[in-house]
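Postdoc handover notes: sequence design on the structure in folder B. Input tokens:
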């Protein structure tokens, strides 16, 4: 190839390369500016649902679902005494899982989704303030130690009396019902009539206490669901100090019978029964056409 042709080929090649560079810049434009990407937001503090009081709960309050609610609580501040729903969020550093494991591993921890089931039958043992987490130390349930002392009305006492199905309204008396307490005993009488005088004994029944609350039957402080009767050997009654003395005397004097009161009598007078008759009374007995006066002494 002649030097002239070789020079023409080189010039054409350089021109083609230059043209390609120009066209690339013309078609592509300026290099695109980098797109700003938002940095991922810092994760919020992990929270766990804790059961708390919705209102101030004094001692003796029987808890219902409306008294408690789930509230978000910092997972790293959980206590083993808190009642949680068992759902702690996961965390990359594992701190939340460690906190959850510590809580759910507690011996007295209860886990559940429905607050009504968690507090069913529970009574407040120590005052709980609004927003305060519910702990097992501050509540007590039937069958647990200290339950009956929490159920008692301030100033009242719990006393047990022996009963049977016959002396407890056929077993239809249940915990929470109201009853009258009757005692049966013998009384001496003196009769004077046309045929002379006679001595003897007569059986008397006396209402000792009225409208008394039944705390428990045997060791049951509440009836089973749908239960209509309980046949028990003992009934525990709620009485005041004076009523306790009267009940003790009644138990020593003879068999004690419980008479079931109507539910509508709940707000009626409660305590010692008002005796309708005086201690010494005289009755008239007509027998075989002869009338006798009988003086009855309890």
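Designed sequence:
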């Amino acid at each position: 190839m002649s030097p002239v042709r070789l020079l023409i080929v080189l010039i054409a090649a350089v021109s083609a390369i230059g043209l390609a560079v120009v066209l690339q810049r013309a078609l592509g434009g300026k290099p695109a500016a980098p797109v700003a990407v938002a940095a991922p937001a810092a994760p919020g503090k992990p929270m766990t649902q804790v059961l708390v009081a919705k209102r101030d709960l004094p001692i003796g309050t029987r808890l219902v679902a409306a008294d408690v609610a789930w509230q978000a609580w910092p997972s790293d501040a959980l206590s083993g005494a808190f009642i949680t729903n068992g759902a702690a969020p996961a965390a990359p550093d594992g701190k939340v899982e460690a906190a959850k494991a510590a809580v759910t591993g507690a011996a007295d921890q209860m886990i559940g989704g429905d607050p009504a089931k968690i507090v069913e039958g529970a009574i407040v043992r120590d005052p709980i303030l609004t927003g305060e987490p519910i702990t097992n130390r501050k509540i007590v349930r039937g069958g647990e130690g200290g339950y009956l002392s929490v159920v008692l009305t301030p100033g009242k006492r719990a006393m047990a009396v022996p009963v049977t199905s016959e002396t407890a309204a056929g077993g239809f008396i249940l915990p929470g019902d109201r009853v009258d307490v009757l005692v049966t005993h013998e009384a001496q009488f003196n009769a004077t009539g046309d045929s002379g005088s006679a001595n003897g004994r007569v059986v008397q029944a006396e209402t000792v206490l009225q409208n008394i609350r039944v705390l428990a039957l045997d060791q049951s402080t509440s009836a089973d669901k749908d239960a209509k009767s309980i046949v028990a050997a003992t009934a525990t009654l709620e009485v005041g100090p004076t009523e306790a003395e009267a009940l003790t005397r009644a138990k020593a004097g003879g068999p004690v019978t419980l008479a079931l009161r109507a539910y509508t009598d709940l707000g009626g007078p409660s305590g010692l029964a008002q005796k309708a008759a005086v201690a010494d009374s005289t009755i008239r007995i007509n027998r075989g056409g002869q009338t006798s006066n009988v003086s009855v002494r309890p």
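Context for whoever picks this up: The chain has a mean pLDDT of 75. Don't rerun without checking with the PI first.
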